Amino acid sequence: MRNKIARTLATLSLALSSTWVVAQTAPTTTVPPASPSANAAVPALPVARIDAVTDTFFGTQVADPYRAMEDVKAPDVAAWMKAHSDHARRTLDALPLRNDFLSDLQRFESSVSARVTEVWRAPGDRFVYLKRAAGANAFKLVTRVGLQGEETVLFDPDTLAKQTGKPHAINTLAVSHDGRLAAYGVSAAGSEAATTYVIEVATGKLLGEPIPRTDFGAVSFTPDGRFLAYNQLADLKPGAPATEKYRNSRAMVRPVDGKNSIARPLLGTGLPGSTLKPDESPALQFTADGRWMIAAIFNGVQREIMLYAAPQSALRMRTAAPVRWRLLANYSDEVNAFTYRENQVFALSMKNAPRGRILRLDLLESNPRRDAWVQVLESQQVITGLTAARDGLYFEAREGNVKRLYRQAMGSGATPNAANRSAPPPVQPVALPVAGNFWLNGFESNWEAGNPLLPGVQIFMAGWTQARQHFIVDETGKVSNSGLQPAGALDAPADIVATETQCRSHDGAMVPMSIVHRRDIKLDGSNPVILTAYASYGITIEPGYSVNRLAWLNRGGVYAFANPRGSSVFGKQWYEAGKQATKPNTWRDLIACGEQLISMKITSRERLGIIGGSAGGITVGRAMTERPDLFAAVVPQVGSLDMVRMETTPNGIPNIPEFGSVATEPGFRALLAMSTYHQIKDKTAYPAVLLTHGVNDPRVEVWHSTKTAARLLAASSSGKPVLLRLDYQAGHGVGNTREQQQAETADVLAFFARHLGMTATK
């Protein structure tokens, strides 16, 4: 089980050495309006109101001239947003290649009959998964028995879209180990405000009441199918502070076919004997053998989790007696993923092991202690995940930009004891058909590649130039393509290649970068390049292929993918070298990658663009403000751009472990340093900028983009456009329909083409 709740709270899209800070010195009353030269084509565009708002933190005055824009429902703010959104729409629609890109994206999408994701595999050759046919708008929940069996649709979000006029999407999915039951969370218009439905897979019958406020999902079923556990957000009263949204959530248990009124909280604040804090979120997992309940406690987006265990026999729905939980791991043990097999908990820990190690704890000990963990595996590669199957344990590890799969065979009943603890079964590599990426744990779900009731694992694999395919690995190590993901005619274009390089950063650190381009690329500095990075939460950009990239690549464009510090491409130390006070390394690493692309004569400053989503907005936004001369175009998507004010938002407090808090001086100075909005300087020649955002974003408030757009319009002296593309039926990108995705991609590519000098129509 990966840190699912933390990943959901993370400001994701898709995409801190010594304290470094530049204080905001421009007084609020002297910020100039947008110059006529910058927006001469539309002189009627409204200019954002400027207020003399200044906050003082630890003796430093911080101007916030567009504070009023945080009230997005205020009539003048709403009118400003709509006018600038309409202007962006007109401008983007008029770009020469916009319709060509959209046509390409639609054509490429139809090159494969369907997209399949989140496959759950159960006994009886049962498969439950999400599938979107070419031309369909949303992923449907489907099932089949046997790889050649007939497919049955269990739920289609488009039925709700037709009823309400709003796009709907499945945000979360969990399937019981035996495949009899499934729970799926549905939300509208990108809000991620999910309601969970429970369904009997074989019949399609809905069971019990829909469960509201289940944004995180975190559903688990008891092996007898009688009960389910889930995380539920607090039911806030009208007028409650926005920052309370994700606080005081609880792990609830309810009969599968029951009413919500009889649900019982098992973990959370305010319960007898509970030590959980308001910002800690519990998730409960029932083991498939019926023996244990394992609880994971998440502190916002913090990577480290706490683990507790209690016997499933302690679950008594008709009594309010508290469950006696035993602490297995605290945050200081640096566990960030775990799995269970036959009375043993296996955990991935970074403590005293910056590249990770696997530990094991026997739950049958009379009083298992935190110091009783036994090391199973340590590696020079970066261990990134683990899962349990009937035949043993499986581990994933990263070597450079390639994942490796390992298997540790264990027979049934192979519970360790004093005699065999020192001699764990050997770990064997599994030969894989693709040199690239795969996951053993879901990124934002409870999904695991292994099922304790089945041997082997099932994984999706992809490379930079090879489309994702679904494979089943059996207990002998044989790997076979399941065929669940249909092959496409453009799955592995022969004329597209990937080049790996490293870039020397400002302090000598070598930053890995992958460059995807046509085989016949000319090294004359003329190639339009889109450079992307994320680098927060330890998230690494892994190899992956999208047929949509051909729209750019076929016209001579280049993609570059960087993993600056703040990612965990090289493990814990690399991650922590781009966090809070060391966050400047993140954007300076990206700057180094841009300079490397130029020195390699792949591109030039006039043809280099950068893009980053969510927390990647910090990376590209600050690269732009620190080196506006290096880039021709910048696209922050749902970007975290005003980090000083992030803490006032629903998702701000959960992000304190990653970015810091203005309540402490080191935290404030780190946040000010990484806040693009506050680092924009008057009379500076900034590149062309396109800010994209979903108005219903629950992770990064839309005003991050509107305030930054207003500030850039007032400050930039380059005469280049600042466009604000808003989608009023979207949020953070989670659950966007096919049409929404294609429209935004076409806009972004057309914007880059215009400002990076791309003219080729094909």
Descriptive overview:
The protein is an alpha+beta fold and 762 residues long. Helices cover 17% and strands 30% of the residues. It is built from 13 helices and 37 strands. The strands form nine sheets. Strands 30-31-33-32-34-35-36-37 form an eight-stranded mixed β-sheet, sandwiched between helices. Strands 3-4-5-6 form a four-stranded antiparallel β-sheet, with no helix packed on it.
What structural class is derived from the secondary structure elements?
Answer: alpha+beta
Overall 3D form: globular
Largest sheet properties: 8 strands, mixed
Reported by name, the CATH topology of the largest domain is Rossmann fold
Low-confidence stretches: 12-41, 414-419
Compute the number of structural domains.
Answer: 3
Helical residues, percent: 10-25%
Across the major sheet, the strand order is 30-31-33-32-34-35-36-37
Q: What is the H level of CATH, i.e. the homologous superfamily of the largest domain?
A: Alpha/Beta hydrolase fold, catalytic domain
Q: How many helices?
A: 13
User: Between the first and last Cα atoms, what is the distance in angstroms?
Assistant: 45 Å
Proportion of residues in β-strands: 25-35%
Radius of gyration of CA atoms, rounded to a whole number: 25 Å
CATH class of the largest domain: Alpha Beta
**Level-2 CATH architecture of the largest domain:** 3-Layer(aba) Sandwich
Report the mean per-residue pLDDT as an integer.
Answer: 92
Number of strands: 37
Summarize this structure briefly:
With 762 residues, the chain is α+β, with helices and mostly antiparallel strands.
